[in-house]
Design a protein that fits this description.
The protein is α/β, with parallel strands linked by helices. Among the domains are: about 305-340 and about 575-710, Rossmann fold (3-Layer(aba) Sandwich), CATH 3.40.50; about 370-555, Dimethylsulfoxide Reductase, domain 2 (3-Layer(aba) Sandwich), CATH 3.40.228. It is built from 26 helices and 28 strands. The chain has an 8-stranded mixed β-sheet with strand order 14-13-25-24-23-15-16-22, sandwiched between helices. The two termini are about 45 Å apart. About 50% of the residues are buried.
Length: about 775
């Protein structure tokens, strides 16, 4: 620790921090605009000038590193005058009438409420009113007038992109947006164009954001200290009167969000600063779509039964009685239950218990991720150690090498990518292995390309590289090493794959990086998991990771895919259900969540339990409206293995009920007394008692400030698994194919309040391919 003095007060600071950081950490305020947590020092606004004894002139606190015995003064009459002068110059090119208005104290009571104007001339018309950093600095400096003539830059407001507007007439050129886009998100979409009075934030050739590589994550909007970047949907909204913490349900990362509410209505969502999962970062879905998912016009809001060929609204009692009678009347034929892997642990647990008790079957999950993860766990638990699947994304910077195989992580797991990028910037070597171009390639030390179906051959080649470069003593020293060595020696020799697919140089570079690096991590994504033969590919990839002394972590996509595997490790694939429908094996089918369309083949009775009117809605015999994630409580396990509790944010719309409540009431109708759960907490307690790995799901263990992880009981020894044959028939289930397989998802998006903005999001998806369909969007 370094000791220094600020305003005569002795403080301690970490080496490498700045004077501004040290002052803020100790409650000493220094006005600033361009500095922000996690961004490099910029020194553009010059508001944080301070005096350092022994040095001439003034220095910016945000660019001055702490030194031993440094003596800093932050407040003098001269410094105050300099800051006011600088701030007035900044405001001379920013609408500031409201900041110096003599009546601003009484303005709140009388001001106009609308903010949908073409030109912002003051705070009352600005979408950031009440949340603007300029207002805070004006109050800190006690600004009463601006002595310089106002200049309006008369830029056209950019409204061509989805979700937010860019009004550079309100920009103060702090470059926060430029730095967060480049340094934190790795996109580099924005830059400062021109110099002097013509300087402006712009994209390459002034193209729209979508044509410039932007992923619409909203990080620039959150970093902007003014209204230059503002969320379009909030322009006509009043500010939230309450904020609550939430867990994003839209992918397996499970980011922490701060959700704004006004009069019990969900208004907006922003990433939560300090969250151990995302630390102030989010993606396009969590940042801009959460509200419209809950308020979608496609919501299913009333129980319905099919009568005389038509779905008609009925009471909950009528609907449950009808479903109970129909399920009980078909005991001689198979009955199936398909669950969404986005349901909470509590919902999945009760659903599985219901399936065993009344349908005499095991639940089947909608996502192929779940099947691949289950196969991976089963493979290792049978032939090796318990899989070490828990990790902390923030600790990836300590890895020597990170391999991303079969995943375009900036699209499928955007916030996980933020941590991988941070590691790459600190020197971690990144190896990318995909079948096509990826956003990761620009950061990769090695990019390996293979055609779908050639992954097994590439893994054999990499295995033989280790065979050629590791001495005999190495193979004898590891459990199962001799068996694996013999397997690799029996494999066909190299050179059977056309050089256009991958070269010997690429294999050598891949092997050398793995051989040199320490503490490696392999991430395996849907490009390898969601296809035939995934189990064999995982076996070979596991072998390669162990040879390199690395860990292998398969990436689930859906918000609770990891939880589904922990609860139901033997659950089967939805493809078996679809095949059974074609063969006429099912008398009834219960669909809980957004499930792919059944097609022409269907059983005698279909129950759809979902939050939205999806592809199977019109063919359902019974519709049971389920509450969304924001309207109920539940526990989720994210891709890291974190056990996260999601709180209820708003009351359910219409007559929607939590999924667990529906299963419990239906079980009562069918004569059971084993489903008397009062709330989701009761269910969590039973999960905690019955499943040792999920012991900390219990509310007693989810203490404030503590992050629980799934328990991993590791077996001694790490036995390598002999390479397994891999099926090479069929093409990969690509992201685009997955999107087309979920026709209700685009229909759902078209129904959002942001109808026009979705057109831009569709363009983004067409360019990059989506991250996969999901119940919540």
């Amino acid at each position: 620790m370094i000791k220094l003095r600020i305003n005569g007060r002795e403080i301690a600071a970490e080496s490498g921090t700045t004077v501004l950081d040290a002052a803020q950490a100790n409650g000493i305020s220094i006005p600033h605009l361009c500095a922000a947590k996690g961004l490099s020092s910029y020194g553009g606004c010059r508001l944080c000038l301070v005096e350092v004894k022994g040095k001439r002139g003034y220095v910016p606190a945000c660019c001055t590193p702490v030194e031993e015995n440094l003596d800093v003064i932050t407040e003098t009459p001269r410094l105050l005058e300099l800051r006011r002068l600088t701030f007035e110059l900044i405001l001379s090119e920013h609408p500031h009438a409201c900041l110096v208005c003599l009546e601003k104290k009484d303005c709140e009571e009388y001001k106009s409420t609308t903010r949908k104007v073409g030109e912002v001339t003051g705070c009352v018309l600005c979408p950031e009113n009440g949340q603007c950093r300029l207002q805070e600095v004006a109050a800190e400096l006690k600004l009463e007038k601006v002595r310089y003539p106002a200049t309006y830059r008369n830029f056209e407001v950019h409204r061509e992109d989805p979700f937010f507007d860019r009004n550079y007439n309100l920009c103060i050129l702090c470059a926060r947006c430029v730095r967060v886009c480049s340094e934190v998100r790795g996109a580099g979409t924005l830059t400062v164009a021109y110099r002097g009075p013509q300087a402006v934030i712009a994209t390459a050739l002034d193209r729209p954001l979508l044509d410039s590589g932007c992923q619409l994550c909203g990080a620039c909007v959150d970093a902007c200290p003014t209204g230059a970047l503002s969320e379009r949907a909030l322009k006509g909204e009043s500010l939230p009167d309450e904020t609550r913490s939430a867990v994003c349900p839209l992918c397996s990362v499970g980011c922490g969000l701060e959700v704004g509410l006004r009069k019990g209505r969900l208004v907006n969502s922003v990433p939560k600063a300090g969250s151990p999962v995302n630390d102030g970062q989010a993606c396009v879905k969590g940042r801009f779509l959460v509200r419209d998912i809950v308020l979608s016009p496609q919501r299913a809001l009333r129980p319905m039964l099919r009568r005389n060929g038509e779905l008609v609204s009925v009471s909950w009692d009528e609907a449950l009685d009808g479903v109970a009678q129909a399920l009980a009347s078909k005991p001689e034929r198979s009955q199936g239950l398909v669950l969404s892997s986005q349901l909470s642990l509590e919902d999945q647990f009760v659903a599985g218990k219901f399936a065993r008790a009344f349908l005499k079957t095991e639940p089947v999950f909608d996502s192929p991720d779940t099947l691949a993860l289950s196969a991976y766990r089963k493979m290792l638990q049978t032939d090796g150690p318990t899989p070490d699947a828990n990790f902390e994304a923030a600790s990836l910077a300590a890895a020597g090498v990170i391999v991303v195989a079969g995943a375009d992580i900036p699209l499928s797991h955007p916030v996980l990518w933020v941590n991988i990028l941070k590691a790459a910037m600190k020197g971690t070597k990144l190896i990318v292995w995909n079948s096509g171009e990826s956003l990761l390639d620009r950061w990769a030390a090695v990019s390996l390309r293979t055609m779908p179906g050639d992954e097994s051959v590439a893994l054999d080649e990499l295995g033989r590289w280790f065979l050629a470069h590791r001495p005999q003593a190495f193979w004898s020293s590891i459990p199962g090493g001799e068996e694996l060595k013999a397997s690799l020696e029996k494999a066909s020799p190299g050179g059977t794959v056309p050089p256009a697919r991958f070269s010997e140089e690429q294999i050598n570079a891949f092997g050398e990086l793995l051989d040199e690096a320490q503490d490696g991590v392999f991430f395996c994504g849907p490009g390898l998991l969601n296809r035939p033969g995934a189990e064999g590919i995982l076996a070979k990839l596991w072998n390669l990771a162990r040879l390199a002394g690395a860990r292998l972590i398969p990436l689930a996509q859906e918000s609770n895919g990891r939880g589904a595997v922990e609860l139901w490790p033997s659950a089967g694939p939805v493809a078996e259900v679809l095949q059974g429908l074609g063969e006429g094996r099912f008398g009834s089918l219960y669909l809980a969540g957004t499930i792919p369309p059944l097609g022409a083949a269907r059983p005698d009775f279909v129950v759809v339990q979902d939050s939205f009117r999806g592809a199977n809605y019109e063919t359902a015999d019974a519709v049971l409206p389920a509450a969304t994630w924001a309207e109920s409580e539940g526990t989720f396990i994210n891709v890291e293995g974190r056990i996260q509790r999601s709180k209820k944010l708003v009351e359910p719309l219409g007559e929607a009920k939590p999924d667990w409540w529906i299963f419990c009431r239906l079980a009562e109708k069918m004569g059971s007394r084993d489903f008397l759960f009062r709330d989701s907490t009761d269910i969590a307690e039973e999960i905690s008692r019955t499943l040792p790995a999920l012991h900390e799901v219990s509310s007693h263990h989810q203490k404030k400030g503590r992050t629980a992880f799934v328990r991993e009981d590791r077996k001694p020894g790490s036995r390598l698994i002999a390479s397994a044959p891999v099926s090479r028939d069929g093409a990969a289930r690509t992201a685009l194919a997955a999107f087309e397989a979920w026709p209700d998802i685009p229909d759902f998006y078209r129904g959002l309040n942001l109808r026009e903005q979705f057109r831009g999001l569709r363009r983004l998806r067409e360019k990059t391919g989506p991250a996969g369909g999901s119940r919540e969007g």
